[in-house]
Amino acid sequence: MPPAPEPLGVEGLTYYHGTRADLKPGDVIQPGSASNYTDRRSPWVYFSATLDAATWGAELARGEGRERIYVVEPTGPFEDDPNLTDKKFPGNPTRSYRSREPLRIIGEHTGWTGHGAEVVQAMKDAIAGLEPIDD
Q1: 19 with 56: CB under 8 angstroms?
Q2: Which residue ranges make up each domain of the chain?
Q3: DSSP state letter for 67
Q4: Per-residue confidence of the chain (135 residues) as pLDDT tens digits?
Q5: I need a labelling partner for 87 at 20 to 30 A (CA). Which of 20, 46, 123, 130 fits?
Q6: 35 DSSP 8-state letter
Q7: 104 in helix, strand or coil?
Q8: Sign of the CA dihedral 126, 45, 55, 90?
Q9: CB atoms < 10 A from the CB of 27, how many?
Q10: CATH number of the domain at 15-127, out of 3.40.50.300, 3.30.420.10, 3.20.170.40, 3.40.50.261?
C-alpha cells in the first residue's frame, strides 16, 4: 500500500480567507478570479493562518455582499505573500500566503469582530492605488 500523501500546510494550523463572496463547503476559490482589492484578476489566491489578516481581507474586499471569513484548505503548494512578508512585516508574522492552486472551502468562521469604521476607512485610503506583487 503506498504511503498517504503529505498534507499541505502546517499540521495544526487553520487557514482563512476573508471575502464578500457567498460560498459553501466544497466550493473552491480559484486563482484568476476577480480580486478583492483591484479591478484586475490575480493569478494567485491569498489566505492566512491568522484571523486578523482574514478580517482585513473581508473588510477590505470590494462588493456589496456580507463580509465573510471562510476556513479554507490549500489544494496545492503555496508561498509567503510577498505583498506583506519582507516588505512590511519581515518573517511573515501575519502568516499570509498565496497559491496558484485553488482553496477549498471547509466552512465559514462566524463570530469574528471587525475593526471600527474609521480604522477600515483609513486602511482603504492607505492602500488605494497600490498594485499587488503578482510575479
Answers
A1: no
A2: 15-127
A3: P
A4: 443 334 455 667 899 999 999 999 999 999 987 666 666 678 999 999 999 999 998 998 888 889 999 999 999 999 988 877 666 667 777 788 999 999 999 999 999 999 999 998 888 887 776 666 555
A5: 20
A6: P
A7: strand
A8: negative
A9: 15
A10: 3.20.170.40
Calpha distance 88→123 (Å, rounded): 14
Helix (H, G, I), strand (E, B) or coil at 117: helix
Retrieve residue 57's grid coordinates: 481581507
Residue 72: strand pairing partners: 15, 105
At 27, list the grid cell.
466550493
Residue reference for cell 509567503: 80
Helices marked H in 35-116? 51-60
3-state helix, strand, coil in the chain (%, to 5): 15, 25, 60
Global pTM reads 0.81
Element (H, E) at 49: none
